[in-house]
Amino acid sequence: MSELLNFNFPSEPTVERVTLFADVILPLPLPRLYTYRIPLEMNDEVLIGARVIVQFGAKRVLSCIVADIHENAPEEYQAKYILDVLDDKPIVTAPQLKLFKWMAEYYMCTIGEVINAALPSALKLSSESRIQLHPQYNPEEDELILAAQEEKIIYALQQNQSLTFTEVGNLLQLKSYHKFIKSLIQKEAIIIFEQISDKFSPKVVKKVRLSEHFVQEEGMLEELFNQLTPKPKQLDVLLNYLQRVPVHQDVNQNYKGIEKNVLTNNPHLSVSSVNSLVKKGVLEQFDQVVSRFPMDVEAQQLPMTLSEYQEKAKDEILGLFKEKDTVLLHGITGSGKTEVYIDLIKHALEAGGQVLYLLPEIALTAQIVTRLMKVFGDKLGVYHSKFSDNERAEVWQGILSGRFQVVVGVRSSIFLPFHDLSLLIIDEEHEASYKQYDPAPRYNARETGLMMAHLQRAKTLLGSATPSIESYYNCQTGRWGLVSMTKRFGKAQLPDIELVDTRDEQKRKNMHSHFSGKLLTAIEERLQRQEQVILFQNRRGYAPFISCDECSWIPKCKYCAVSLSYHKYNNELRCHYCGYHERMPHDCPACGATTLKSMGFGTEKVEDELKLMLPKAEVQRMDLDTTKAKNSYQQIIADFENGKTNVLVGTQMVTKGLDFENVSLVGILNADTIINFPDYRAHERAYQLFVQVSGRAGRKGKPGSVIIQTRDPLQSIFRKVRNNDYQSLYEHEIEERMRFSYPPFVRMIRITIKHAEEDTSENAAIVLAKDLTDRLGKQQVLGPEVPYIFKIRNLFLNEIHIKLPRSNTNLRAAKDQLSQAIFNLKLLPDFKGLRVVVDVDPV
């Protein structure tokens, strides 16, 4: 007590001045984090995982993510101050930061490249970011309280459509101008967008409601009826509104109103009458900002019962999850894996966790989202590259806020800010589409997803009818659990597979262009029975190349060592590597002859010829050329599902997981190009493609058939496909890979050396291969070698392959040696302008 009495309380509390520093992740390919000083007044505002604005270099202003906060000033340079704080809560979670660091280390890139790939553009700002007036803000009518600097900005935006951050700084003549931009954003007076992307505008719907006094004041509604009696069309509009909105039962329903187009699109109501009621003040028109992801919430209680066989598979999976973190569900095509997934998602949500459902293709999300919506309603988020930046940012924020508990998406979904992930489902886990090729990070979403699940202590379920050899090996060695589904759902049976020898068909003169007589007859029979057909050709465009009949001239790309593909729809020749295109010539530039012929065939030619041969067929094509628009996938699939088209021609997009109940025939037009490919995975991929596309036929009890056209029907791969014999494929492949040291027995790293000069590229590759051989050993380094396509985008390529045995290799040490060798190579004066690309686990 005496100590307390003798204590001197200061008149004002003393605040200890602690100088804090923040390590930030800049969205740039920098080898290490950069440190900034936190202004004292921001000590409590700067949070790990939140965005801050910093100046980098002389003029660049960027937003970046705070990775760490500490009291250690950098020794190598004087830390600049953070300019402003963008978030009052982290937008990147702690598990995400750990994952991003792992990705940078494992895939040998920088964490800045990872964060640049991870964040939607709408969450990234730079000095080139622009501001515009908010579409809902009217400076003349809205009475916002604005500071003088804010008024200046608003006035400037009324004169100009948009301003860059730099222009705002010049306008205000202030270094610290970001707080005024931030304030205007919070007041919803302005919005930010990137120069390269579309300007953001919230999704707004026009709605109408009955003016309040007609509902609140007694007798007013009856009086309104009397007034409108002489105007029956306007009375019809009012009655239609009241049928939809029972205002006497619930006044609040009137406040919500209905979408105006419900009335204006009604063929029995007059549009002018609706507008007249709005003008008179009977109906009040207002705008409402709505989510870009409206969900059918009412359909959440849709019943779904698993079959006894599916229930058994689900119970086995849950049982294995008690002792293993990862389980592979090996279920044949049409076995009902999706229903098992949905039941497991329900199970995870009931336990309070989050779920990520990964799919390899956007086309698959289009079909499966409809099914998932009916089960999970507004808990479901969708994430893929066809969405705008702002739509992706909305999903990102929706996960942080807890709005979306289930997300279905493609490979980029592994970047999303899950904080309580309990289940990760990777469907069609064998697909190469999970691999990102360019730019860095060159990650595989399957492997990255497994690490994400590990960091969040979540369970992972991988599913496939044709698992990758590596995944099945993990099950055989006991690392993962394995559950098999060997029967199709319900009464559906596996399709009959018939091989057609195209050489024999040609001898018999039974080939009609690229269609055998058997295939054409089978298509005609299905169309007569009003059934549907899928045709698979693994090349897009009209023809792989054209050639002069006289001098054999073939047009080549100016920038790549490839021939140009002919696209008939645009009448152009196009490079599928760099995008270069030119008009189709009328005559040969070499000899002047007019005998230019298309060689080979792609999906466009298949579609074209089929329309000529079967004029009554409704043919549609699904490939990279026809699915560029945002909703093109959904439209093509919807047309096929609804029977508007009865023949779907496509590339690999049509092979993956699509479920059409009326498809009874699948045709594979040129099987040999897939099998005869110089790659150790060629047979595995061929088997996967043939089985997957075959699995689209006969899924709902209707007998299915598959016709495979080949010049070599005796190849062993066809026997395995016909017998659905994955086990034989696995046993053959695993023996070959063990003998010749390929995954899963080694880790592979491909190094690609690129330079504008062919000799420089070759010499650099030789020097690097020598250094790596000295560091890692002769057995581990293959090459250098010139790849089949040796020039892309005016750069000459050389490749070196590294094989690191899994059993006795220190992977981190080996990668450090590789990084050091590349670093030393770039320091040599002879190799200026050299690009070295490292691809870990190439596929």
CATH superfamily of the largest domain: P-loop containing nucleotide triphosphate hydrolases
Main β-sheet, in a few words?
A: 7 strands, parallel
Beta-strand fraction estimate: 15-25%
Could you name the CATH topology of the largest domain? Rossmann fold
Q: Tell me how many strands there are.
A: 36
- CATH class categorisation of the largest domain: Alpha Beta
Distance between the ends: 75 Å
Give the overall shape: globular
- Total domain units: 7
Number of helices: 28
Radius of gyration: 31 Å
Instruction: Tell me roughly what share of residues is in helical segments.
Output: 25-40%
Mean pLDDT: 87
Any low-confidence stretches, pLDDT <50, length ≥5? 1-15, 194-202, 295-301
Structural class: alpha/beta
Q: What CATH architecture of the largest domain would you give? A: 3-Layer(aba) Sandwich
Placed side by side, the strands forming the largest sheet appear as: 14-15-13-16-17-12-18
Catalytic activity: ATP + H2O = ADP + phosphate + H(+); Couples ATP hydrolysis with the unwinding of duplex DNA by translocating in the 3'-5' direction
EC number: 5.6.2.4
Cofactor: Zn(2+)
Protein name: Replication restart protein PriA
